[in-house]
């Protein structure tokens, strides 16, 4: 990976941290970048309990590779991939089963039917 790619990735991580802090998640921070081989404690961004955040700030996004990396590193947390390409908004990608679990919890908390 080139220095410019690493720098763009780090900028993406800082963007996600800023997005989360703006939304009120003050504990959001970049993960421990010292673990180059991945693993449960190697999320790109930390601060959402139960959620593993893998950040991809690239124009040439490889969905299944990114999701496989998040799944391999998530441990007991829900794997998510946060992606943004140039001139686009951030999107969050996650497994349907995890999304449904989170949505059911939201429904229960909000009395939705």
- Helicity level, as a percent range? 40-55%
- Taken as a percent bin, the fraction of beta residues is 15-25%
Q: Which class do the helix and strand fractions yield?
A: alpha+beta
Which regions are unreliable across 5 or more consecutive residues at pLDDT < 50? none
- Average pLDDT number: 91
Can you describe what's shown?
- The protein has helices spanning 3-22, 63-73, 96-110, and strands spanning 29-30, 45-46, 51-57, 78-84, 91-94.
- The strands form 2 sheets. A 3-stranded mixed β-sheet has the order 3-4-5. A two-stranded antiparallel sheet has the order 1-2.
- It is an alpha+beta fold and 113 residues long.
- α2 (63-73) links the parallel β3 (51-57) and β4 (78-84).
- It has one domain (3-110): Trna Endonuclease, Chain: A, domain 1 (3-Layer(aba) Sandwich), CATH 3.40.1350.
- It starts with a helix and ends with a helix.
- It contains 3 helices and 5 strands, in the order αβββαββα.
What does this entry show, briefly?
The protein has helices at 3-22, 63-73, 96-110; strands at 29-30, 45-46, 51-57, 78-84, 91-94.
Write the topology of this structure.
Elements: H1 3-22, E1 29-30, E2 45-46, E3 51-57, H2 63-73, E4 78-84, E5 91-94, H3 96-110
Parallel strand pairs: 3-4
Antiparallel strand pairs: 1-2, 4-5
Which key phrases capture this entry?
single chain; 19% strand; 5 strands; 113 residues; three-stranded mixed β-sheet; Trna Endonuclease, Chain: A, domain 1; two-stranded antiparallel sheet; alpha+beta
